[in-house]
Amino acid sequence: MKTISPGVAHTIPKDLRIVLESNKGVCGTWNELTPLARNEWICWIISVKKEATRTAHITRLCEDLKKGKRRPCCWAGCSHRT
User: Fold this and answer.
1) What pLDDT is recorded for position 77?
2) How far is CA 14 from CA 19, 20, 67, 76, 82, in A?
3) Measuring CA to CA, which residue among 5, 53, 11, 48 is closest to residue 28?
4) Is 64 exposed, middle or buried (0-12, 13-18, 19+ CB in 10 A)?
5) Is residue 43 within 8 Å of residue 80, measured between CB atoms?
């Protein structure tokens, strides 16, 4: 099992962990993000209601990290951050 850095308020959900563990490049970029940035990605993924949307968010996270994006776009941010 690879070391995957957590967020601040959220733990990494199992489906995201599986994707990160199976994609070395994305996992490396993920671990380089700040804890707050990782937290925002996690919250962005878990905040949706439909499984298809959640899967699409995980796919987009991988694509965006490969492009150098550090945070989810067009999202107000994690409401759980204090």
Assistant:
1) 63
2) 9, 10, 24, 24, 24
3) 5
4) middle
5) yes
Tokens of 55: 């899967």
Residue 72 has what pLDDT? 87
Tens of pLDDT, residue by residue over 37-80, are 999 999 999 999 999 999 999 999 999 999 999 998 766 666 65
* DSSP for 40-75, written as a single string: HHHHHHHT-SSHHHHHHHHHHHHHHHHTT--S-TT-
Determine the Cα–Cα distance for residues 68 and 80; give it in Å rounded to an integer: 25
Tokens at residue 46, please?
């878990």
Dist CA 47 CA 68 (whole Å): 23
- The pTM of the full predicted model, rounded to 2 decimals, is 0.86
